[in-house]
Structures are given as structure tokens and as C-alpha cells.
Design goal:
Elements lengths: L1 H11 L5 E2 L21 E5 L5 E5 L5 E5 L5 E6 L5 E6 L12 E6 L4 E3 L17 E8 L6 E7 L8 E6 L2 E4 L14 E9 L6 E9 L5 E9 L25 E4 L6 E6 L5 E7 L5 E7 L6 E2 L7 E7 L5 E6 L2 E6 L5 E3 L6 E5 L5 E8 L2 E8 L6
Length: 376
């Protein structure tokens, strides 16, 4: 009877979703910050060679970039009319360790975010020798965080890094799994900014425990506001890059954690996915300065992916097999905005619209659903 009641409650809270795009190509939002600062456009990639934007009022689509290499994972700058994306190589196969960040402005001008150099025996300060991926601006627009894969020393796992004023630095030192000692991190990924000023980068780190096993836990890299990226070691043919002075790594959980982690705009809380006592996968929330985690959702069948905080910090959206769920943080009450699932959730900056992907026929399309908070 309880399950029937919850299902009836969910049906009563469905909002009217609408399909925004229908053109015969992929429209991948890819878990990025796809809304333009004014909320008028969404940027997306085709999983191939093009970056587009679509007007959410009219559905009109405009090509932003389409000049040859594989390009993916588009995000808007928080205050400027420009889009950052992964730019693949021009003359070699696309691979995780040969990608760069590129920015296209409203007038079509393109510039690279990071400097890549795989030919120097000692990598020049501020450059990297691998590939950057899933670029994310801090809310103040000063810093860009991303995952990083090294080309010269591929035995080292993926880690996370940042760029500021054109200079690159690794944030989390990793070691090859075969060489790891207890406490060492062998992989860092699924990262996102916490707060608006780029001083905390949360991530999932794969760490070696005292008993020799490896677990995925939630960590935070604390980055000073006045960090000097010139103090970072850019690496050479035998040594992996190292973080700049002042960066501190903190472990927040001891149990398994996963998903693309997300922090609130005020920097107080981080959300992630973990196993609940009943074995289902649910959203948990933990203070960013440390403390006990709290299970936020109790979604029948579990949460799947796509954790996104509402800009107010009062609600949190996540994908599930039963539909897109929104939970009120203060009470834990959950409503379903859609009757079916969706991927790559992203809130508009005013919090009134949630965009997501769903496959229609052969192509991924973009859908929208309104949110007022009155659903609760």
C-alpha cells in the first residue's frame, strides 16, 4: 500500500515536459553548464565535429563551431557569451590524452584555453603534456577545472587540474596503482567546483587502504585564492606533474562514493551517490568542511546519475528509472517532474527550468521542464 501511495503522489506532481529539439543529430548536454548567462540559449555538442546553441524560446539552432576535429562537452561561461569545449587533435586519432580546452566567442573567434607540449624533455611551466576533459568554469569565471590524462607517463591514472590566466596545474598528485602505498590516491575524477570562487574542487578519488584494498571516496582539493600556479611542477619524461604550493587534499568519506559530485553555490554542501542501507543507490549530502553524511533521497529503485543542485541550494535533482526526481533538502521530500527518466540534467541560472537529454529514435534530443518550487 505504501508503494501505491508513493506512486500516486509522484503522478500528481508531474510537470509538463516539452521537447525543445527535433533536428536529426545528437544534442548532447553531457552533464555540463549548458545555459547561457541570460538563460536564453543552451549549448550542446553532436558527439562529432560541431558545437551548437539552441534558443529555448523558439527552438532555433545556431552553429557555433564546426571546423574539422572532434569536439565535445560544451559549457557556457557564467557571465560572458562564450562557450568552452573539448577540442580534439588535428592530425592524429582522438584520445583521452591529446585533448585541449577551446573557447568560441559569440563572433566565432576560437582560442585555446591551455598550452600542450609533449615534445619537451622538461614540460614548460604552465603547460601540460596530456589531455584535459569536461571543462568547468568557477562561478566567478576566473578558474576552469577539469580531469587530466597524461601522455608521457600513461601508467599514472587520471587526475584533476585547473587553468587560470592560461596556466595549467595538476591539483591532485596520483601514483601508479602498482606503486601505491596506503593513503595514496591512484585516480581522481568526477569532479566539480564547490562554492563560487574556485577555492574547493570536490572529486572522487580511488585510494589505497591500510588493508591493501582500493576504495572510491569523496575528497576535496582546497586551493588558495592567491595560489601561484608557477610553483607547480609541470613534469618531465620521468616525473609526473605536481600541484602548486598551498593546495591541500582532504578526505570526507570512508565508505564508497560515486557519481559526478556536486557542490552548492554557497560552498557549504557536497552531494554524491552511495549505497543506502537497503542496498539501493541514493544521493547523500555532506558538509564541505567535514562531518557526517546524510542520506537525502529514498527513491524506490535508487538514483542513477545526474546530480544537480538547484541554484538556491534548497533542492536537488537527480535521474532515476522512475523519472527525474527533485528532493527538498530541508525535509527530504521528493517529487517527480517527469514520468520517464532523462540524462545530463542542467538547471537554468534562475532555477525555473530544468533541461535534460532523452533519446528519440536515432538521436539524443533536448527536453525542458518547468519548476517553481510550488510542487512541494
Amino acid at each position: 500500500m505504501r508503494w501505491i501511495f508513493l506512486l500516486a503522489l509522484a503522478v500528481s506532481t508531474f510537470s509538463q515536459e516539452r521537447q525543445l529539439t527535433a533536428s536529426p543529430r545528437t544534442h548532447a548536454l553531457d552533464n555540463n553548464d549548458n545555459f547561457s548567462p541570460d538563460g536564453r540559449f543552451l549549448c550542446y555538442d553532436t558527439r562529432e565535429t560541431e558545437i551548437w546553441k539552441v534558443d529555448i524560446r523558439t527552438g532555433a539552432e545556431t552553429l557555433l563551431f564546426g571546423k574539422g576535429p572532434k569536439v565535445v562537452a560544451a559549457s557556457y561561461h557564467p557571465t560572458r557569451d562564450e562557450v568552452i569545449f573539448i577540442h580534439g587533435p588535428l592530425a592524429e586519432p582522438y584520445f583521452k590524452s591529446n585533448r585541449r580546452g577551446a573557447v568560441v566567442s559569440a563572433n566565432g573567434e576560437v582560442r585555446f584555453l591551455d598550452v600542450r607540449d609533449v615534445t619537451s624533455p622538461v614540460t614548460p611551466p604552465g603547460a601540460h603534456r596530456g589531455g584535459t576533459h569536461r571543462h568547468e568554469y568557477s562561478l566567478n569565471g576566473r578558474r576552469v577545472g577539469f580531469t587530466y590524462d597524461d601522455q608521457l607517463l600513461p601508467q599514472y591514472g587520471r587526475t584533476i587540474g585547473m587553468v587560470q590566466d592560461g596556466k595549467f596545474a595538476v591539483l591532485v598528485p596520483v601514483v601508479p596503482e602498482a606503486e601505491a602505498k596506503p593513503g595514496d590516491i591512484v585516480m581522481a575524477a568526477n569532479d566539480s567546483w564547490v562554492g563560487g570562487d574556485g577555492r574547493m574542487r570536490a572529486f572522487i578519488g580511488r585510494v589505497k587502504e591500510a588493508d591493501g584494498t582500493f576504495h572510491n571516496s569523496l575528497f576535496v582539493a582546497d586551493i588558495p585564492s592567491d595560489v601561484k600556479l608557477g610553483t607547480a611542477f609541470a613534469g618531465d619524461t620521468k616525473r609526473f606533474p605536481a600541484p602548486p604550493r598551498g593546495v591541500r587534499i582532504r578526505r570526507l568519506t570512508t565508505g564508497e562514493a560515486g557519481g559526478i559530485v556536486r557542490g552548492t553555490r554557497d560552498g557549504k554542501f557536497i552531494a554524491y551517490l552511495a549505497a543506502a542501507p537497503d542496498g539501493s543507490r541514493q544521493v547523500f549530502v555532506i558538509p564541505s568542511n567535514g562531518g557526517a553524511p546524510r542520506q537525502l533521497t529514498q527513491i524506490e529503485g535508487g538514483a542513477q546519475a545526474g546530480i544537480r543542485w538547484h541554484p538556491s541550494g534548497s533542492f536537488l535533482a537527480v535521474s532515476s528509472g522512475r523519472g527525474i526526481a527533485v528532493t527538498k533538502v530541508a525535509t527530504g521530500k521528493t517529487v517527480f517532474l517527469t514520468a520517464r527518466g532523462g540524462d545530463a540534467l542542467v538547471w537554468s541560472n534562475d532555477g525555473k527550468t530544468l533541461a535534460f537529454n532523452r533519446k528519440v529514435g536515432e538521436h539524443m534530443q533536448i527536453f525542458l521542464v518547468d519548476f517553481t518550487g510550488g510542487e512541494f
